[in-house]
Inverse folding.
């Protein structure tokens, strides 16, 4: 029996019996409270899972709808745009995948990328061609080339 209970009610057999009843009821109340809290947490987790599933299904349906409309895009890039920029409908309540695909086209415009690739190839070609020309012009002189030449004639050749 707890000391505080003994101080308040004494130490008789009736008090000991009352303590046992009180103690067992207290334990039952604690167990019932635990069960209620666990049930509420499980209910909230189920609700969160349902909301996530509903949202994931909606996103999948929007992506499929855009593909059915003939749009060509990388799904992961589009979803990143939707997460980063969050284009919303006029009322601001939900994401607007039509605006998202417009952003996607502006960011990942394939025609621009093709032009950039052409420019890069031209630069690479010019670089390669210039180095080939420079290499042929600057070939090292051999002993045979240097025979019968004076130092002054070599300096004049460089100018």
């Amino acid at each position: 029996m707890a000391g505080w209970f003994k101080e308040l009610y004494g130490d008789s057999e009736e008090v000991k019996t009352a303590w046992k009843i009180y103690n067992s009821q207290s334990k039952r109340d604690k167990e019932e409270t635990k069960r209620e809290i666990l049930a509420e947490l499980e209910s909230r987790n189920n609700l969160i899972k349902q909301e996530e599933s509903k949202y994931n299904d909606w996103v999948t349906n929007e992506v499929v709808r855009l593909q059915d409309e003939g749009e060509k895009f990388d799904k992961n890039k589009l979803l990143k745009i939707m997460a980063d920029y969050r284009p919303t409908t006029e009322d601001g309540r939900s994401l607007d995948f039509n605006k998202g695909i417009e952003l996607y086209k502006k960011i990942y415009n394939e025609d621009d990328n093709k032009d950039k690739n052409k420019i890069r190839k031209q630069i690479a070609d010019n670089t390669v061609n210039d180095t080939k020309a420079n290499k042929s012009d600057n070939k090292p002189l051999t002993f045979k080339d240097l025979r019968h030449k004076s130092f002054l004639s070599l300096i004049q050749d460089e100018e």
About this structure: The chain has a mean pLDDT of 85. The radius of gyration is 41 Å. The chain has seven helices and no strands.
